[in-house]
Design a protein that fits this description.
10 strands, 35% helix, Rossmann fold, 25% strand
Length: 252
């Protein structure tokens, strides 16, 4: 019998540098399947680099990262690792390839060779899940910023990922789109029991998660419950307090 792997991610003493400049320094933590984790820190704290490491888009120069039990240093298994992890950038325009919404959602699974009848069902289910079924024939470029992000989510769902990493996805959205997207994330996590990792520098967003990791100058300085972390760091991060929609409103 195969041993059950509880950790979606396991990091052991991970360090990373760009051109000799240390970005992450001796990071260790684990994230279990189905957790909703917020990675919080100022711009430049190393959040985006950490996210790329988790998605196996870059690789640690020291230490090891295991995704579902597989070491990202095993080059022959990188494709399998990346199929498990969806990644959403700050600007959805950096990821969108197709012109029409349903074609964008179908792009990933189509390239995996999924048969057409199954592909249609996947696209339908994914668009329904994010509330974009009625916009399936729409030009992606005419969507709001929030709906573009939802299109990216739908594409990840169609691929059957086990985790979605969200890299500062609210930073370019207006208040309404931000509220809609965050509500969608909360619903997806609850209904699909997906592992969600949300990077943010807005301290009021961290309460949406079940757990918060705090990065400061490339080091993991705290790991705890959202309310505890917000209370602990609220005054220290005075410049990172946007006017924001409360969790109760988002989740309703």
């Amino acid at each position: 019998m195969m041993k059950k792997i509880n950790h979606m991610f396991l990091l052991k003493n991970v360090s990373f540098a760009y051109e000799k400049k240390k970005i992450l320094n001796n990071i260790s933590f684990s994230i279990d399947h189905g957790e909703f984790v917020s990675i919080f820190g100022r711009n430049g704290s190393g959040k985006s680099t950490l996210a790329k490491l988790l998605a196996a888009l870059v690789f640690p120069q020291e230490g090891n990262i295991f995704v579902n039990g597989t070491n990202t240093q095993e080059s022959e298994k990188i494709f399998d690792i990346r199929r498990k992890v969806g990644f959403t950038f700050q600007n959805p325009d950096d990821q969108i390839i197709a012109k029409i919404v349903e074609d964008e959602v179908a792009f990933g699974p189509e390239n995996l060779g999924i048969p057409n009848p199954n592909l249609c069902e996947l696209v339908n289910d994914s668009l329904e899940c994010v509330g974009l079924a009625c916009q399936r024939k729409k030009d992606v470029n005419k969507l709001s910023g929030g709906d573009k992000q939802k299109t990216i989510f739908a594409g990840s769902l169609a691929l059957g990922v086990e985790c979605i990493i969200l890299d500062e996805i609210t930073s370019m959205l207006d208040t309404q789109s931000r509220s809609e997207v965050l509500s969608q994330i909360i619903r997806l996590q609850k209904e699909k029991k997906m592992t969600i990792i949300m990077l943010t520098h807005h301290i009021d967003e961290i309460v949406l998660a079940n757990r918060v990791l705090v990065l400061e100058k490339g080091k993991l300085i705290a790991d705890g419950k959202p309310k505890e972390m917000k209370k602990k760091f609220f005054d220290a991060y005075e410049e990172m307090k946007p006017k924001f929609v409360k969790k109760k409103t988002l989740a309703s």
